[in-house]
């Protein structure tokens, strides 16, 4: 049977499923969702099961919208909402959108706005006719979250047109039989960086990730490969997570005429915006011409269609996408593509951490079907074993104590997103339990802002942590020793010449940003410690220092190069990576259900991808490949 | 140093290399060749070494053309030519082309027109100022060769414009550094048929072959793959040989807007025209709509730039092509691509026969460099050993004698091109040596015409055979027992009801053509023999009969299907294949110099490519792949 439905067919299908006493004025696709316009939104809200039954029958996510004119006036509605919702929810903001009949309710405790099994929200609709959309007021103020929300509010009308267009494309009949599925590697093969892949079928072309390569700014994804071109004809973009080696060049697509959707999780959307704007900032500070402007970052955000872990979402006539927790950073996902009607299933692992961490649950490796996997291999080498977390934490605490005892400062280069928050949790606990002396922990660069975004999406954090964040007095990120470096270079100089403290600063691979100042200020002194806690890619200054280089050259102000001799203690503690180590990668595959028939090992250097693919083949008898960039594999 | 030369640069370079007493009026690229226009063609002709020295210094093939007005008048020139050339050369035709200053001399013995080390030809130029182009009058009249030559004469002016355009493209500066080479499989993987590959670099896109799939007419090369599209932007087409599974769909490219060159050998150009026209004919007889018309076949011929075995030819700013004898059929070639300045070398084996046969020398497997090979695997299975030729010939003779003794007729389905001529040589010899009774050998379909083309290009045949053909009284193809079936169905019926004889008829895989009539006439009689001597592809009627099926259905006149029960003797003799057997393929690789680092096993069914690639990997430690269609491999 064909999946095609013209709009009148669609109307008939919906009408047939909806109880006859309920009005269906119109139906419309908006992106992957089905929107039902009704003159009786109250009736739809009465029965909590109607939407579920309907979603199941039509195999779509359903949104109900009141036909304009059937709702109470905003001021009347506002009063009712405040009446129905318990005060403890702490509503911060109400926004009425007459064109869609929606009311945005921002509250500190959105759970209380929604009510048990959606009871409160349904009561609101019944009483006022408006359809509530509930968002959380972040426990820490985040300018990123605010900006994104305000921007999307402002672009609401245009965005709705966009979603209708996307909806039409997704629900069109596929032109051709799906008799092949291909993956083209545009980057990220035998290297770490510039993650970018094309997944294509006879009908559809999907771009998965589009990152830069840290330490090699000229090496961008092969977007001019014929498999990717012309870029405006790409049907959809899927982003696994916000790190720049996966997201940096997404806005470039809009510069080149792409105007389709980006599917990713909501926190990834916000983090991506934060990191991309910083990417532009760093480029301009380093005197490079950024490849795109902030306008294209906004375009990317406007074209993002957020999806939640586990939601099966139509993104093309012949492709369904499901994103699953990947355990790597906030919002990070493994992308599962179901192609055709049971024809083939391709999983892009994205960056994964298989064991749970303080921040996140471990990566999901359980799928209905999965014949092919494109898998990260960052720590794929034979001996890439990280010390276990407990030992790593013990070592970090010891290094901090030792540096403190000799009156030194510990400076930790860290990704703004991911390891910083993990480390904040470690340090906060250690101080709380008196395992290290309590001292200031300075956050430099975007770490505080990134942390605020974490607290805005507690659903994406590990269970216990989520609970603690939702109770302000236990929110570990609000501990008073965390202080933002917001006074620029003078403040840094003051800190550097002051008492023992800990500094967390971006960038994580020492390729730019405030860490360069810290290196200059603290590197030459032997009582300080430079502590690496994350992966240092080839070509980065971090990797060079980690490999023993103590003479380094920094690009100073005005293009002048400063030579610097590092005399501080240099340490690496490996247990804090956001990546599974070799054991974790093997275990991830071993326990994967079902086991894939074919695995492409990517996102690792030459040796890592080689050794991992050999091991998976030999131990698990899985067909493995170690692709090069610019290759195309066919599965089917 | 850049390879670019603007025309004035080029002029300077040529001027510097040419002795100052010789005039250089203009220089121009025509396709891969460099043409020098001069007012003193006589002077250029005086010294046999000038051209060689110049070609070496400029690394180009050089053509000298007199500036218009410097030559004798045609009638005067004609007299001089007849005077200078010995009568034994038997000049059949002289054509003067004032626009290019060339005179086409067609003679029975072109060697005598050329003279020792080109002495005679230079004498002609010195005396008349025209530049002679010498071609052979085929010892057997060939309408194909005639038609192609006449057509090219007629299109001479347009063709010259085309060659100038191609020359500019070839000798432009490459836009980008060559830092990758890719091959995309558009067909011919895990199957025999629809050979078609894209070889691409950052600057250039080459299509190698574009064939159909015998027995599966709907399965054409994946020309709509993004790696191939848009077709008009393909820079050049290279054809390894004329068989339809490599050439059938080339004319389609011109229908889709391609207007660039096809590089192949001269005999392949003529055979390709013959086979493509027959392909159209068969399609229309079978009631299928042919995918293109004869006009596009002419386009393909007009756009062919013939190259000789061993000539290193620039075909793109970053690619040099050299074709080598592949031993498979007349003009068949292995295509060696030298990419970039020493960056990478890719060899497409084409279809190969490694041992010499009666017709051809064995395939060349000696190259300056060769990192990657795309290799045929027709007989790649573990047990695909053919009986040796001597035993095969003995068996054929025995089968013929036995059939003769029981008053039967032997009918042999054969490709018009290749095996038919091999068999003709076997049969002619056997009759001459009285090893089988002398009886008529009827040639049906295009076999006689294809044979005539063979005799037009004796340089492409094995040494001894070439000598015999050039002496009319020894030309084995002119033996009187060879008789053309030129009387249609009545003549076939008469032959079928007559005395013992041998019939060679197309098509070789019993997929159409006159062999269908012979099957109907001779198949039901137990005293006849159906003798297979070539590879029968999956899906063809030949394969079904060979595997024991005796109940067959023939499409009769007017769409009516005739059921037929075969009662004749059915035999297969394997030693006559134009393909190397498993031993030959292994030996070809084993003795290849240098050994390639990577081999892609294609042009064989699933088992053949699998078993050959495993064996080459295990025995020779070469990285091997068994590609699927629609995959892209990167080499570098």
UniProtKB/TrEMBL annotation, chains A, B:
Regions that span the bilayer: none
Textual note on the cofactor: Binds 2 Zn(2+) ions, which are required for nuclease activity.
Region (KHb): 72-139
Keywords for the protein's UniProt record, in alphabetical order: DNA-binding, Endonuclease, Exonuclease, Hydrolase, Metal-binding, Nuclease, RNA-binding, Transcription, Transcription regulation, Transcription termination, Zinc
Protein name: Transcription termination factor FttA
Cofactor(s) named in the record: Zn(2+)
Class in the EC hierarchy, top level: hydrolase
GO biological process: DNA-templated transcription termination
Annotated region (Metallo-beta-lactamase C-terminus), positions in chain: 578-636
Purpose: Terminates transcription on the whole genome. Termination is linked to FttA-mediated RNA cleavage and does not require NTP hydrolysis. Cleaves endonucleolytically at the RNA exit channel of RNA polymerase (RNAP); the 5'-3' exonuclease activity of this protein degrades the nascent RNA released from RNAP.
Sites where the protein binds Zn(2+) 1: 241, 243, 328, 351
Family annotation (PROSITE patterns): KH_TYPE_1
The protein's assembly and partners: Homodimer. Interacts with RNA polymerase (RNAP), interacts with the Spt4-Spt5 complex.
Enzyme nomenclature, EC number: 3.1.-.-
Binding site for Zn(2+) 2: 245-246, 351, 603
Pfam families found in the cross-reference section: Beta-Casp (PF10996), KH_TffA (PF17214), Lactamase_B_6 (PF16661), RMMBL (PF07521)
Gene behind the chain: fttA
Region (KHa): 4-71
Record family assignment: Belongs to the metallo-beta-lactamase superfamily. RNA-metabolizing metallo-beta-lactamase-like family. FttA subfamily.
Domain Metallo-beta-lactamase: 193-415
Domain Beta-Casp positions: 420-545
Domain K Homology residue range list: 97-168
One Gene Ontology term of the molecular function aspect: DNA binding
